[in-house]
Amino acid sequence: MELNIGNKIKNLRRQKNISQEVLAQYLGISFQAVSKWESGMTMPDITLIPALASFFGISTDELFDYNYYETEKRIREIVDASYPYRGKDDAKCEELLRAGLKKYPGNEVLLNCLIYSIPVPERSDEVISICRSLVESAREDDIRYDACRILAETYQKIGETGLARDTLQRIPEIYFTKLELEAVLLEGEDKFRAANIQKALSADSLVKMLNCLADYYQETGEPEKAKIQLAIAEKVIEAFRDDFLTPGMCKTVYQDHEAELVRIRKAACQ
Which residues contact 69 (CB under 8 A, 6 or more apart)? Predict the structure, then answer.
């Protein structure tokens, strides 16, 4: 399918009865850039697509006239293909996701996955730009709040602690998740899917918190307490050694934390 994003933007702009200057001002760009889009000379930068869709009150899929369900299926295939490379071969992961973004420019799911593969602090400006766009314009809460989290992590890594703290304030404090409730309250495949995903998320979160406590105790001069936290983290990971892959999973919890297990054992010996 040939993309004609310029004509789409022009038609949407005229429907709202606004000028190129007004649209440009909202996006923080020049009206000449909007003019070039509408004439077909250039296309919008991928980081502007969510903002464009938000401005016109439509989804990014609608902006590109995609069939929603077919697009969702294709997006999932791209994400599934890229996921095994995340954290192992980030360059390959990024390559697959950027190829997907050429077909589906501005797709929130692909952009959200992309920021995981971009190295920080080496390319922190790029990560910050994409995250800010998603925070302001993503239609799905999980994508918006995940972008907040990654944005805060990026600020922390480049020494901007104040900005990290401010960004975290945009994330609501919730003591239960939809997945937990689905696992407890639903039945059959719905129950299985929710419990399976939440299991991995809970294990990952627990290991992270134990590491955070170990870091705190180490910093405050209590190395023995730090070692106890690391020992618990090791047991948590080891508890999943015999777990097995289930539909929708690329790796087991144990496989996902094998590298972390090596680091924990090394730290515990120091």
Answer: none
Closest CA to 114 of 140, 136, 143, 137: 143
Joined together, the tokens standing for residue 51 give 């903002």
Give, as one character, the DSSP assignment of residue 249.
-
Residue 160 backbone dihedrals phi, psi, to 5 degrees:
-95, 70
Sequence-ordered list of residues with C-beta below 8 angstroms from that of 227, at least 6 positions apart, any chain: 214, 268
pLDDT in tens, 28-37: 999 999 999 9
Distance CA 57, CA 159 (A): 36
Distance CA 49, CA 148 (A): 18
For CA atoms 198, 252, 81, 43, the dihedral sign is positive
DSSP state of 187: -
pLDDT band at 180 (very low <50, low <70, confident <90, very high): very high
Q: Are 147 and 138 in contact (CB under 8 A)?
A: yes
Exposure b/e, 90-100, CB count within 10 A at least 16 = b: eeebbebbeeb
Distance CA 150, CA 156 (A): 10
Distance separating alpha carbons of residues 254 and 166, to the nearest angstrom: 34
**Contacts of 10 by beta carbon, 8 Å cutoff, 6+ apart:** 38
Instruction: Say how far apart CA 25 and CA 34 lie, in whole Å.
Output: 10
d(CA 181, CA 98): 35
